[in-house]
Structure formats: C-alpha cells, structure tokens
C-alpha cells in the first residue's frame, strides 16, 4: 500500500523545493497543476520510473489521490521513496495554494 502524505506536510515539502511528479494526463496537467510539478502520466510510470531519483523523496500527485497511490506503489516497488499526496491537486487548489496553468517545458 502506498505511503501517503497530508496536504500540510506536502505544502511544507513543496516550499522546500521537493520533487513533485504529477501523474495525470497532459490536458489535465495543462488545466492546472502544482507549480514545479513534473508531468509523468500514470500510464508511463512503469517505463519511466527509472528516471526518478532514489536518494530523495518524490511526492506524487493527481486530481484526488487515486492515481497517485497507484503510481507511488509502483515507484516504491522500484526503489523510489515515493509518497502519494492525499486529496491531490483538487484539495491543493481548494485550499488556495498556488496553481499554474499551461504545459510544462520539459517532461520528467
């Protein structure tokens, strides 16, 4: 079972420049994402997991927390110190935290 992190703990980690991976699809990401989050759609995680560091925590986020739990489970099974963000981007935005729209420059 994926390890989860609260919104408050995630906000503190994000403020300290944590690595955030958004596992939604590109159109969802473009509609609004946590600033600095890297896009790695859930369907690509099995083949791209090796791109992630194993020496620091990775915070995995989606819309509500369902896909991020699946992705974090996969990442953890591959040696990545991954945590699913409880409540996802929806809860993040509803709390008034920063959200950025538009595509990213480089996928993770």
Automatic annotation (TrEMBL):
Residues 16-101 form the Rhodanese domain. Pfam families: Rhodanese (PF00581). CDD domains: RHOD. This is Rhodanese-like domain-containing protein. It comes from Streptomyces ossamyceticus.
